[in-house]
Amino acid sequence: MVILGIDPGLAIVGWGVVDYSGSHFKVLGYGSIDTPAGMPTEERLCLIFDGIKELIKQYHPQHLAVEELFFNTNITTGIRVAEARGVIIMCAKKMGVEIFEYTPLQVKQAVVGYGRAEKKQVITMVTMLLGLQKPPKPDDTADALAIAICHAHSGHSRLAQYYNQK
Question: Which of 55, 105, 131, 136 is the most exposed place for a label (fewest CB within 10 A)?
């Protein structure tokens, strides 16, 4: 199963594509979609849409795993990230890719074994689990790969299928 993991953002969208078969991972690609800060939001959203569309065309994922939003104190930033996340989900839906969503707590639990793990721990485990020579950069890319790993580990359990059908 090919999984496209996405860490949504407006400035940086982290992405990672893995093929998960027989409990083994094969990394197909990873990187980020970057949008310039001075560009109008609607143009940045178009860049994100086009970038996700190209990734889907290139890698043909069966599933897109995306992180749910966690709002900190800056509501304006949260709204912009939510807009980007909406564009990502819409693009995947229009391209016929099945969508799964995970909280940051679920991702950390699946990758590190502890839901309150620090970012450095997540990056270390992603690097080890995927057999990468060095930690993926930027951190958003490591997060996207962690989301893909989370989906691979939990996306097909009977419990997950039950909740995803609701």
Answer: 131
Going from the C-alpha of 15 to that of each of 69, 73, 163, 165, the distances in angstroms are 16, 25, 25, 25
Q: Indicate whether 84 pLDDT > 80.
A: yes
pLDDT value, residue 86:
97
Structure tokens at 3: 């999984």
Residue positions annotated with a catalytic role? 7, 67, 140
In sequence order, what DSSP letters do the residues of 31-69 get, joined into one string? Answer: EEEE--TTS-HHHHHHHHHHHHHHHHHHH--SEEEEEPP
What the block records as the tokens of 40 is 């109008």
Strand partners, 24: 21
Cα distance between the two ends of the chain = 23
